[in-house]
Amino acid sequence: MKRFDLPYGRGTISLSLPESRVKAVLESHLHIYHPDQGEEELVRRALEHPEGSPRLSRLAEGKHNVVIIASDHTRPVPSRYIIPAMLREIREGNPEADITILIATGCHRAPTREELIQKFGEEIAEREKIVIHSCEDSEDFVSLGTLPSGGELILNRMAVEADLLCAEGFIEPHFFAGFSGGRKSVLPGVAARKTVLANHCSAFIDSPYARTGIIEGNPIHRDMIYAAKKAGMAFIVNVVINQKKEIIHAVAGDCDLAHQKGVGFLNDWCRTPAVPADIVVSTNGGYPLDQNIYQAVKGMTAAEATVNEGGVIIMAAKSEDGHGGQVFYETFRDEPDVDRMMERFLATPAEETIPDQWQSQIFARVLKRARVVYVSSAPQEMVRDLHMIPAGSMEEALEIADRLLGKPDGSVTVIPDGVSVMVTAPEEGKTEL
């Protein structure tokens, strides 16, 4: 038997399989990458050697109103290492700078005080000026014209009117933006809901270029990079983390150039060719990314890329916060026919995109390809409403999958962390290291 201890919530969940059934284990190679410096040193070195930009301390000279866009509680960004280093660098160049940390919630809920302390540490959470972005239309927004897609670019006024705008973040494969990090701090991070909906429209989500690991030709990325430049994003500090959520690589500097360097690192270490199987096991990498079903769609797309048509995906995501999106949940609860649902999405004009439609569209695409057995702590009725089959353990999930396939020996591909790996067609796979 082969045992897998998979990330689940703040711990792990185990799965044991006969070795004869395991067709492949698909994972990034970040777990074998060992940096030559510790986490703080990697961030410091990146700040000292920025890509395509003067140092942050130089940029801060003479700037009074400085805004650092920081990720919210749904992202495992090691802000405890990044933000203090950025604050020191800014104050080295300008001790009198008025610094605001603007939390990029996108369309997510606001983080709690406890979540801010957990993210930044008590000293920063208590002493620094922290403002939480809200995507709802208000006087706190400013229009910057039109995106390449045709949607209106409406951003948080605080970010746009900053004398110096910079951001922290982390870079990982992203299931429709290609990669996270960089320009995403602005759009969707500090954009108005109307702008996010236009960028996440059904036509863009349906594009073959709006996939994990693809930036070239990706219409969603094109809007995002445009928004970041229009906002005046001057500097980023982005990191790559391993399965233990430890920093193993850091980049800093120009929003586009530094991000490209981080993307290059991930391309070297995270691409793996698909190995089709009857059953594919995936996770969302554990806490904080598996707090709800909405976010778990990301890990399902890695399985979607390698599961046989009509096969079964076993998705393990603790989902302590439930579904994670009321409209997302109601979309599936109220429509039993996924094909009809998809037709409705594709017929929806960009300006009429509804909240969470993009996630629903991608989830529907997954469900059209394979049945999903969902291992979580979410209510079973909720899981069924979302067109999935609930399971209380990996053993039960495997039994259900075998029963659905009508055979006890179907092949199994295991993806220990579905959000950290880029599963590609075999000919597009990762080159030898």
From TrEMBL:
InterPro entries: LarA-like (IPR048068), LarA-like_C (IPR043166), LarA-like_N (IPR018657), LarA_C (IPR048520), Ni_dep_LarA (IPR047926)
LarA-like N-terminal domain span: 8-213
Pfam families the UniProt entry points to: Lar_N, LarA_C
Domain of life of the native organism: Bacteria
Lactate racemase C-terminal domain: residues covered: 274-423
Annotated GO MF terms: lactate racemase activity
NCBIfam families: Ni_dep_LarA
Protein name, UniProt field: Nickel-dependent lactate racemase
Organism name: Enterocloster lavalensis
